[in-house]
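Note to self: keep these together.
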Amino acid sequence: MTPARRMWTIVEPVHSVTYFSPEGRARFEAAGLRGFWRGYFASRSAPLGRAPAAVTVALFANFAPRMVERAIPSVWELASPAEALQARLEGSVAALDRLLEGAAVDEAASLLQSVAAAAPTSGRALGAANAALPWPDEPLAVLWQAATVLRELRGDGHVLAQLAVGLDGLSTMVLRSGHDLARDVLQPNRGWTDEEWAASGESLAARGLLGPDGSITPAGLELLDRAEALTDELAQEPWTIAGPETARRFAELAEPLAQATRTALPDVNPIGLPATPG
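Structure:
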């Protein structure tokens, strides 16, 4: 596992409590954002303000455009971006407070804030929008917000990496479904039709990236590996700036926190992380 991938396995579960914890869902519902996807799209796009749907579609590249457009911009009739931001922070802090059971997080939060605050954001709009938000004061809130900045920067970098190797969001998922992730989880959670999925599969097969049975070929695996390597290179930048001692100390402090927060994730999820280490 690369250093950047290791940090992802620590940061991603901390961030993801906002979507999968009962506390997160309750805060979204209290803000008028009923249903998983309203809360998801509102909370992730809220740092952009009332950006046009086309902007959110471009940044949420793995989702079918129509799925994003069902939520954006109509979701802002239910809650403003500021209200969505407040709901996601309150729900995430409440979830972390329960999951971490009073664990001391001050040092880990401070370290991660320093990494996130100095992270390069050029060309990474979601990460930049989150990095521009005011920092909270409470350590659990700082920990969550710093994790969110770094998570979104990695996600932006992943979209750039896909494009750099000649893939897009849909074709990346079709390849992954022929390799290590389940189509019946990926496809409905990203809103693509059977026809769109099949057309992408045919295109990938014509490029020699998928076999006749839909399984990934060595060439397809090599392409995915290139995209992941580029993603890791971009995600490593903040940790390189922070220095090896900061990275080492943060990982030492935060790996137990990540193990606790992973329990909030469902066993089968579209993120690619297991619910518990294994």
